[in-house]
Amino acid sequence: MSNYRYRVSGINQQGEWEVVRPDGYMCNGTWKTKEDAEQDCKFWNGSLKKWEDKNDSKRTAKAAGLKSLAEVSRLTGVSKETLTNWQRNKPKLFAIVLKGCLAAKDTL
């Protein structure tokens, strides 16, 4: 496993928390509380720990507890290509989508 980790970087000028991606860039979006930011970092880092390839959306979906990226696509109506782009470029959105899919799967 690589040493790259998602981490909370601090508070921005608007008083919201920011997260740094493993590649050193800021994540898209901000968090209202440090706890929310830390929870998402823990979720993403758990995926990184289980699967070495941090950019593989299929493996991230499986690490989150879903069968496949195809299952995420079926549950959301979003193409696998778009989901892969979200995982790479908008990890907070992708994490929310995965959490929503897990919740929806539990109620089906």
Topology diagram in text:
Blueprint: E1 7-11, E2 17-20, H1 34-50, H2 57-63, H3 69-76, H4 80-89, H5 91-107
Antiparallel strand pairs: 1-2
Helix pairs in contact: 4-5
Please give a structural write-up:
This protein is mainly α and 108 residues long. The chain contains 5 helices and 2 strands; from the N terminus they run E-E-H-H-H-H-H. It has helices spanning 34-50, 57-63, 69-76, 80-89, 91-107; strands spanning 7-11, 17-20. A two-stranded antiparallel sheet has the order 1-2. Strand 1 (7-11) and strand 2 (17-20) form a beta hairpin. Helix 4 (80-89) packs across helix 5. The chain is globular and about 40 Å long. The chain starts with 6 loop residues before the first strand and ends with a helix.
Summarize the model shown.
The protein has helices at 34-50, 57-63, 69-76, 80-89, 91-107; strands at residues 7-11, 17-20.
- Catalogue the unreliable spans: 51-55
- Major sheet: 2 strands, antiparallel
Q: Per the principal axes of the C-alpha atoms, what is the gross shape?
A: globular
SSE string, helix = H, strand = E?
EEHHHHH
Q: How many helical stretches? A: 5
**Helicity range of the residues?**
40-55%
What is the strand content? 5-15%
Report the C-alpha radius of gyration, rounded.
Answer: 14 Å
* Helix and strand composition category: mainly alpha
Side-by-side strand order of the widest sheet: 1-2
